[in-house]
Amino acid sequence: MITTGAKFWFGLTFFALFATVVYFMGSGGEEFGSVVLSAAAIASFVVGATCAGLRDGNLQTPGGRSVVVGTTPRRSAGPAPWPALGAVGVAVSLVGLAGGNALLYVGMGIMAVVLVEWMVQGWAERSTTDADYNRELRNHVMQPVEFPVLAAATIALVVLSLSRVLLAVSKTGSTVIAIVLASVILLVAFVVSARPRISSTLLSAFLVLSAVGLIAGGITSAVIGEREIEKHGTESHGDGPTGTQPVGNETPEATHP
Question: H helices then E strands: how many in the chain?
Answer without folding.
Answer: 7, 2
